[in-house]
Specification:
The protein is mostly helical. It has a domain of about 110 residues: Cytochrome P450-Terp, domain 2 (Cytochrome p450-Terp, domain 2), CATH 1.10.230.10. It has 20 helices and 3 strands. It has a 3-stranded antiparallel sheet with strand order 1-2-3. Strand 2 and strand 3 form a beta hairpin. Helix 9 runs parallel beside helix 10. It starts with a helix and ends in a 6-residue tail after the last helix. The structure holds carboxymethyldethia coenzyme *A. The site of carboxymethyldethia coenzyme *A has 21 residues, from loops.
Length: about 450
């Protein structure tokens, strides 16, 4: 067993003991009350999940094991001559709970490089789909095809004790993360670069190698990938991709099946697909106005038009956040350093000035501020990665780090099958009429 796996097990055992005590001593304490409105409105704010890897504060934004994004950019190991954190380091942090050393990050990086070989049948599955298939569909199909490799599924069929689940889930998580960049790059080169594939470079880090396989060798693009794959990794447990992975994993579906559940959720326009939608929205605006850089007044008018048509302004709003997403801010800082004069990036910044008061003015949008997706596409376009249909796949590769680290924790802590209570409207009506709680 590698030392990272040993450290994880030691941390998880200690945590499991603490949880046992918490439940024994405080198990009956109430965290909150649940209102009928919350039940009808997407369960907003109902505390009902434990996710150890990160915690979201509505005003501050995400913290990974207590560290904010600016802190991570400062403290996580970087490549020599680089400024951005290595996603391997964030994975280690989410898994173990401590900031890794360079050696820890090297260990994770080497493990993933060693496991990155993708079996041929996965490429056959991708090739069986029409090239026109959306990249997220290709990505989900390929990740599902990789399930033939699941050590957890095999061991479970052969018969293992519940105490051993975590170990096989850990192995599957590491292998799946190791292989996703190759799969994603294959889909990209197949769909947009005439199937001219680029072999991995085992000397590069996980994100650097991904950029290389996509066909982008520029140092600052590799840096962007390191930042991108770090900041998109996790956003506590209730978002659709994290929750879906956790939910399906709770049925002891293996990490491949569970991850694909998360990815099919990420592919929705209110979640990860918003990064594609943002770029389309900006491009449609520019096309309609016949300009490369619309004025602030033109942007304001276009936002009003979007709202009048009953559509959402993509990249704005959030179910939990109530301030500018620090993941947006991190990208602004990157763009200021590397490409401040890019017209689309300037448009993104102008939208940021114009959109919040208009959205706030509707009186119904709870968060008028930009989320992570408002900026990412413009940065990718700047470096020539112009195929916005592919953007959610990049998000998915990153999100694997968070949801799979969490899945390791779920099994190491022995969390049970998730099964909340549902009701019918008839039940709610009779509850209201009786004016009394009915036991679930
Ligand atoms: N543009 C227009 N209307 C918006 C809006 C936006 N950006 N954000 C919220 N609203 C609307 C909602 O659709 C809802 O309208 P109805 O009452 O008519 O149904 C109303 O405002 C209240 O919604 P809310 O409580 O503020 O937001 P929700 O928690 O319901 O939804 C989110 C959150 C992200 C789905 C929503 O803000 C949205 O659709 N944003 C645009 C899509 C987007 O950027 N998604 C990416 C989120 C980040 C990620 O997961 O990647």
């Amino acid at each position: 067993m590698g030392y990272v796996k040993d450290s994880f097990k030691a941390k998880a055992d200690a945590q499991a003991k603490e949880i046992k005590t918490i439940v024994e001593q405080h198990g009956n304490k109430k965290l909150d009350e649940v209102t009928i409105a919350q039940v009808y409105q997407g369960m907003r704010g109902i505390p009902g999940l434990i996710t150890e890897t990160s915690l979201l504060d509505s005003n501050e934004g995400i913290r990974f094991r207590g560290f904010s994004i600016p802190e991570l950019r400062e403290k996580l190991p970087k490549i020599e001559g680089g400024d951005e954190p290595l996603p391997e380091g964030l994975f280690y942090l989410m898994l173990i709970g401590d900031i890794p050393t360079h050696e820890d990050v090297d260990h994770v990086s080497t493990t993933w490089a060693r496991r990155s070989h993708v079996p041929n049948h996965v490429f056959d599955v991708i090739e069986a789909l029409p090239v026109s298939t959306h990249p997220m569909t290709q990505f989900c199909a390929a990740a599902l095809a990789l399930q033939t490799e699941s050590k957890f599924a095999k061991a479970y069929t052969e018969g293992i004790s519940k105490k051993e689940h975590w170990s096989y889930v850990y192995e599957d998580a590491m292998t799946l993360i190791a292989r996703l960049p190759r799969i994603a790059a294959y889909i990209y080169r197949r769909k947009y670069k005439n199937g001219e594939h680029i072999q991995p470079d085992g000397m590069l880090d996980w994100a650097g190698n991904f950029a290389h396989m996509l066909g982008y060798e520029e140092h600052s693009f590799q840096e962007l990938m390191r930042l991108y794959l770090t900041i998109h990794a996790d956003h506590e447990g209730g978002n659709v991709s994290a929750h879906a992975t956790h939910l399906v994993g709770s049925a002891l579906s293996d990490p491949y099946l569970s991850f694909v559940a998360g990815m099919t959720g990420l592919a929705g326009p209110l979640h990860g697909l918003a990064n594609q939608e943002v770029v389309r929205w900006i491009e449609e605006m520019c096309k309609e106005l016949d300009t490369e850089q619309p004025s602030k007044q033109q942007i304001a008018d276009y936002i009003h038009k979007t709202l009048t048509e009953g559509k959402v302004v993509p990249g704005y709003g959030h179910a939990v956040l109530r301030k500018t997403d620090p993941r947006f801010t991190a990208q602004v800082e990157f763009a200021k350093r590397h490409c401040p004069d890019d017209p689309m990036i300037q448009t993104v910044w102008n939208i940021y000035e114009v959109a919040p008061p208009i959205l706030e003015g509707t009186g119904k949008i709870k968060n008028p501020w930009p989320n992570v997706d408002a900026h990412s596409g413009a940065l990718l376009k700047h470096y020539g990665l112009v195929e916005e249909e592919f953007y959610t796949v990049l998000f998915g590769v990153s999100r694997a780090l968070g949801v799979l680290a969490s899945l390791c924790w779920d099994r190491a802590l022995g969390f049970p099958l998730e099964r909340p209570k549902s009701m019918t409207t008839e039940w709610i009506k009779s509850f209201v009429a009786k004016g009394e709680a009915v036991a679930g």
